[in-house]
Amino acid sequence: MVASALEKRLQDGVAAGRLKSSELKDNFTDVHPPLDKHEALVASDRCYFCYDAPCVTACPTSIDIPQFIREISTGNTTGAAETILEQNILGGMCARVCPTETLCEQACVRELAEGKPVQIGLLQRFATDDAMEQNKQFFERKPATGKTIAVVGAGPAGLACAHRLAMHGHEVTVYEARKKPGGLNEFGIAAYKTVDDFAQHEVDYITAIGGIDIKYNQPLGSKLNLQKLRQNHDAVFLGMGLSGVNALGLKGKEPVGVMDAVDFIAQLRQAKNKGKIAVGRRIVVIGGGMTAVDCAVQAKLLGAEEVTICYRRGQDQMNASPYEQELAATHGVVIRDWLQPQKLKTKAGSVSGITLEYTQMNKKKLVGTGEMITLAADQVFRAIGQTFGDENSNTLEDELKLDKGRIATNEEGATSLSDVWAGGDCTNSGDDLTVTAVAQGRDAAEAITKALSV
Fold it and tell me: In which region does residue 50 sit, left (phi positive, over 0), alpha (psi from -120 to 50) or beta (all else)?
């Protein structure tokens, strides 16, 4: 019997070039188009400029939000950018990727009163984009201290730390494992959230202060030794993030077609031609966070026909915000909760489906019900949390105190070693967000400067 056209398409497996270049261009445009000047003035006029504003408390970097919005409303866009950047030097990226709907905008008085908050994220982007486009630099280096600090990782935490240390007059060497800086901002965020190579433009803007030297292809473990870093520098900051990904925990070797969501996202971010990225017809993403949503939505944007996110708990317990969940739904992604993977199906060495077990809560413990469902899939993505890579884990376990698999730190980022600080996703404190990493890197830099001045 001759297969129908639909059946044939579903049997085509994983392939590149499912959509025309014009379609891909439209699909990967900026998910949050910026405000123009008039729109920014209208949006800023809605702010009450609250005293003891709850939005400031909700911001991990404690930006004076009423102040910068007032500056926008009076036409002082440059002043607004300075107000933002003095607290968050990566304010441009955070304006694009922060879950503002669960942070500052959720706390906005307008949201509480009317269900429609001030557009804080877009206003922040309006101000910081203006400053970066005109290369307005607000911070100068203090006189040289003669101190040198090693920063491991050129991601949000490392860059924020390096900039603040350089501002205080220290010489900073950043050791980056990849051949390009940016960390999560460059490799781990959906392409439609940060277009036009913004992450690299922001790195250039940050390092323009001077006193920051970035060395590439320097992973901790194989090429970098923590003891030698401590010997060669006055202090060390660890901000290398998490390079490993949790496994599905299923028996047997994983077949072709099963891959990490973070690798898929990184491929998309680095691809000059997205049409060359292979994608399946029917895709299952295992996980419930931002990475799962970014992976699933982009698979749809590349031309996948059926994309399903499977999460082991209820949808209200997903780490992805309600906004991100809605974004997935509007792009045709199906979210199925209370499901955990049990077995991968294969055909000719490639994945052809996945069997999942329904779950439920029993006395506050997640348990399987024994009821199964099988979903057809020619690609399965893992998005179930990240860990240290083997090299980092082995290096750190021997020298640092860890807590739940991450570096244990105090509120200033100090570790169990007196001359080593840490921040960002590699630590055990705070949410795994760009803005949290920035705050931790900034605060660690202040703590390092205080310690070195004693």
Answer: beta
CA–CA gap between residue 381 and residue 358 (Å, rounded): 19
Contact 364, 268 (CB under 8 A): no
Whether residue 441 contacts residue 239, with contact meaning beta carbons closer than 8 Å, is answered with yes
One-letter identity of residue 263: D
Residue range 234-285, pLDDT digits in tens:
999 999 988 777 778 888 788 999 999 999 999 999 999 999 999 999 999 9
CB 210 within 8 A of CB 314: no
In 153-267, beta strands by DSSP E: 171-175, 212-215, 235-238, 244-245, 258-260
Long-range contacts of 21-26 (CB under 8 A, 24+ apart): 21/273, 21/275, 23/303, 24/274, 24/275, 24/301, 24/302
Backbone φ and ψ for 65, nearest 5 degrees, come out as -65, -50
Domains of the chain: 9-29+246-385 (3.50.50.60), 45-133 (1.10.1060.10), 148-243+388-452 (3.50.50.60)
Q: Is the pLDDT of residue 130 over 90?
A: yes
Phi/psi at 152 (5° precision): -95, 110
- Residue among 143, 93, 71, 4 at smallest CA distance from 435: 93
Tens of pLDDT, residues 336-389: 999 999 999 999 999 999 999 999 999 889 999 999 999 999 999 999 987 776
- Phi–psi pair at 205, nearest 5 degrees: -65, -40
| CA gap 353, 374 in Å, rounded | 7
Mean pLDDT of the chain: 92
Q: Are 128 and 84 in contact (CB under 8 A)?
A: yes
**Chain mean position to CA 385:** 12
* 3 state DSSP class of 281: coil
Most distant CA pair in the chain, distance: 83
* pTM over cut 0.90: yes
CA dist 146 and 234 (Å) reads: 10
pLDDT above 50 (res 1): no
